[in-house]
Specification:
The protein is α+β, with helices and mostly antiparallel strands. The chain folds into six domains: about 5-90, GIY-YIG endonuclease, CATH 3.40.1440.10; about 100-215, no CATH class; about 270-380, Ribonuclease H-like superfamily/Ribonuclease H (Nucleotidyltransferase, domain 5, 2-Layer Sandwich), CATH 3.30.420; about 410-470 and about 625-700, UvrC, RNAse H endonuclease domain (Nucleotidyltransferase, domain 5, 2-Layer Sandwich), CATH 3.30.420.340; about 480-625, Aminopeptidase (3-Layer(aba) Sandwich); about 725-765, no CATH class. About 40% of the residues lie in helices and about 20% in strands. The chain contains 24 helices and 30 strands. Strands 4, 11, 12, 13, 14, 15 and 16 form a seven-stranded mixed sheet that branches. Strands 17, 18, 19, 20, 28, 29 and 30 form a seven-stranded mixed sheet that branches. Helix 23 crosses helix 24. The longest helix is centred in the middle third of the chain and has 43 residues, at about 360-405. The chain is globular and about 105 Å long. The N and C termini lie far apart (about 65 Å). The model is unreliable at about 260-265 (pLDDT under 50).
């Protein structure tokens, strides 16, 4: 452990708070919380060998530690949770999945409520059920609810007080902004009650929704009683067809209810969480028990080799920050430290007290044992599946390396495809496989600019590849290295600064980065902080015989990375601006006071007092780690033509990245400089891997293209008018019916709906 880090830990406070271990670039490696910061941080020094392999690896890279003091443990838990979500430190235990969890949402406040799936909970008055980990289960549940309770699939149904009901309808409704014209197909085949055409009133439809909500919450009794009563009434009125339909609904609900595990009808609502670990992965099974019934089982996976107590604590914090329904009692299979603090943390996400219990005997322990049994089974099944997938991936990558004659195993594969509709809404996709397995978090989409209205796949592919490769950070020429300055470098730096009249104010070797060629320092530069928000790059120098190789660009980029601020400053002489423009700096009209004072001090010492100084700043952008990663192999969906485009782009960039294309018709693989496809067996693991990558690129592009088309279809001429937001737009379309009707209205008529300022802007721009 670096001495600086040990000294920082020794000086840490003794109260509660949150700490962050940082690497040499100032990037967070690990975030943790503690009752006593000093004691907790000292444990990393004194008991380093007792830490998990993951934490030991983190400590190898740690260069610094920071902390934030809090008033109590609950505050530190909340802050730790927020920081982990924001910073995503590499060595923290986090639930890891390529997708976010799903919820079932019921818009109970609407005239005609909708039942949909969403990825996030919003504070909009709707009812939410989840989170759900299985998309297939969610789809099945949604289908069952809609069929059983005859819910409509049409979105955006609203009452229209000024409208006229359709023939035979009970209410006038609008679909979005347009009056309803006819019932949907489901109504005609008797699978919905027709709210999309006003065939039922909001009150009648709300009864259907209420029964569906009870069903989703696991409370089947009210729904069954109401349906049976209605069925008997219809049978008494000799309306046997409608009574038979209700009988079928009752049977469907009873079948669903039979699937539930009855544990104790008097049992309060609770969650039961079982935990198992296997090969560095953590497996959780969560039972949701409501009204004495096991209504749902959710399964989660996280990575990390911390203790069982730490893993369980991390899961509790992350899950219950997302949960839509938090019971008063939670059974856990592992004791956690700071039990009261965790209970207080979860309390922030609900309106009632929460108790964490580790049962040790009786029927409560039986529930935990059942959850543990399921968690272990989940771990075993997952290990078998992963080992099989990983083995196949290893075989595929080894075969690709051999057939394509690559220097090393291609760990990162990128696949590209273009999707459009007759030349419109053109979208490019980039999908990624790491170690042969899909890495969905690294997928990216490109909305085409130069070929947006052209049916030109070659030009579109050229734009996508050019834009993607622009993100690759330049690499230092072979034989050069940038590192932190050492004490032994200081004499050379000091002597050179004085000789070359490089800014030598307050020289401190700890502020410098140097460029080495072999073991010889051939350049240096430093980052100095004048204030907490003003980081200045100065004293940049390259030995004359090495100039012209853009070495200073690499050095300055390294110094920018070193800064923790979003802006980094420098000053230069007039005429040198272009050099820094190419790196990404912009010229300032007004420099910070600290820089002005620095230059004034330098002028007094310098013999060049009349030089014109230009001040510049570099605005940091959010890093895209997927784009910054260098691919080991690029695969293009297409034949020789598409491959030629990729070769052209790579050549223009001076990049030696292997590239291939995969033609769909015969699954042939082409490589540059060879007219015939390579000899890759069509039934091999390598061929299957390339096909999966190609198909995934196509799916991802098509999905984005459909989304873009759907969005464009719902756009209106009102969207781009200054001062007109979604609420005003909605009011205008509800009142006038269409954008053309708004255009035809007088300014006074528009002002009565949207206000005078908006009306003036609309008449000027529409």
């Amino acid at each position: 452990m670096p001495k600086v880090l040990a000294k920082l830990i020794a000086a840490s406070p003794t109260g509660p708070g949150v700490y962050k271990f940082l690497n040499e670039k100032g990037e967070p490696l690990y975030v943790g919380k503690a009752k006593n910061l000093r004691n907790r941080l000292k444990s990393y020094v004194q008991k380093a060998t007792d830490q998990s392999a993951r934490i030991q690896k983190m400590l190898e890279h740690a260069e610094s530690v920071e902390w934030i003091e809090t008033n109590n443990e609950v505050e530190s838990l909340i802050l730790e949770d927020n920081l982990i979500k924001e910073l995503q430190p590499r060595y923290n235990v986090c639930l890891r999945d390529d997708k976010t969890f799903q919820y079932i949402k019921v818009t109970v406040k609407d005239d005609y409520p909708e039942v949909t799936t969403v990825r996030k909970i919003a504070k909009d008055g709707s009812r939410y059920f989840g989170p759900k980990t299985s998309g297939a289960d969610v789809r099945e549940l949604m289908d069952s609810v809609k069929k059983i309770f005859k819910l409509c699939s049409v979105r955006g149904i609203r009452l229209d007080p000024q409208g006229t009901p359709l023939p035979g309808a009970k209410a006038a409704v609008r679909i979005g902004h347009a009056p309803a014209k006819r019932p949907c197909l489901d109504f005609h085949i008797k699978r919905c009650t027709g709210p999309c055409a006003g065939m039922v009133t909001p009150g009648e439809y709300r009864g259907q929704i209420s029964a569906a909500v009870d069903f989703l919450a696991g409370n089947f009794k009210p729904a069954l009683e109401a349906l049976r009563k209605q069925m008997m009434e219809l049978a008494a009125e000799k309306k046997f067809e409608r009574a038979g339909a209700l009988r079928d609904q009752v049977s469907a609900i009873e079948r669903a209810a039979q699937k539930q595990l009855i544990t104790d009808t008097a049992m309060p609502d609770r969650d039961v969480i079982g935990f198992a670990d296997d090969l560095g992965k953590n497996y959780f099974v969560l039972f949701q028990i409501r009204a004495g019934k096991l209504i749902a089982q959710e399964r989660f996976i996280s990575q990390g080799e911390e203790s069982a107590a730490e893993v369980m604590e991390a899961f509790l914090r992350e899950y219950y920050a997302l949960a839509a329904d938090i019971p008063k009692e939670i059974f856990i299979s592992v004791d956690v430290q700071d039990l009261k603090a965790i209970e207080g943390y979860i309390r922030h996400y609900t309106d009632h007290a929460v108790h964490l219990v580790r049962p040790l005997a009786g029927y409560k322990d039986d529930l935990i044992m059942l959850a543990l049994q399921n968690a272990r089974a989940f771990a075993t099944a997952s290990r078998v599946a992963w080992e099989s997938a990983e083995r196949k991936a290893e075989l595929a990558l080894a075969e690709l390396q051999k057939v394509l004659k690559l220097p090393a195993t291609p760990k990162r594969l990128e696949g590209y495809d273009i999707s459009h509709l007759g030349g419109t809404e053109t979208i490019g996709s980039m999908v990624v496989a790491k170690n042969g397995l899909a890495a969905k978090a690294d997928y990216r989409q490109f909305r085409l600019r130069s070929t947006a209205a052209k049916n030109d796949d070659y030009a579109s592919l050229e734009e996508v590849l050019t834009r993607r490769l622009n993100y690759l950070p330049p690499e230092l020429p072979e034989g050069y290295k940038i590192r932190k300055a050492k004490k032994g470098d200081f004499e050379f730096i000091e002597k050179t600064c004085k000789k070359e009249q490089v800014n030598d104010e307050d020289l401190n070797f700890k502020q410098f980065q140097v460029i080495e060629k072999g073991k010889k320092v051939i350049g240096f530069g430093r980052l100095r902080s004048f204030e907490t928000t003003v980081d200045d790059i100065s004293s940049v120098w390259i030995v004359p015989e090495e100039r012209g190789k853009k070495l200073s660009h690499f050095l300055i980029k390294k110094l920018i990375e070193q800064s923790k601020n979003k802006r980094v400053y420098l000053d230069t002489i007039k005429g040198m601006e272009d050099h820094y423009f190419r790196i990404g700096f912009e010229q300032l009209h007004q420099a910070p006071k600290a820089l002005l004072e620095k230059i004034e001090r330098a002028r007094k010492k310098s013999t060049h007092k009349n030089l014109v100084i230009v001040y510049m700043a570099y605005q940091k952008k959010k890093r895209d780690l997927s784009f910054e990663a260098r691919p080991d192999l690029i695969m293009i969906d297409g034949g020789k033509g598409q491959l030629g485009v990729a070769v052209k782009v790579l050549g223009a960039k001076g990049l030696a990245i292997p590239v291939i294309s995969l033609a769909k018709e015969k699954e042939e693989v082409f490589v540059p400089g060879q007219s015939d496809p390579i000899d890759l067996k069509p039934a091999s693991e390598a061929s299957y891997l390339l096909q999966r990558l190609r198909d995934e690129a196509h799916r991802f592009a098509i999905t984005a293209n459909r989304g873009s088309r759907d969005k464009k279809m719902t756009q209106s001429a009102i969207d781009d008018i200054p001062g007109v937001g979604p609420k005003i737009k909605r009011r205008l379309l509800m009142h006038f019916g269409s954008a053309s009707a708004v255009r035809a209205a007088t300014q006074e008529e528009i002002a009565a709906v949207a206000g005078a300022l908006a009306a003036e802007s609309i008449k000027a721009n529409l």
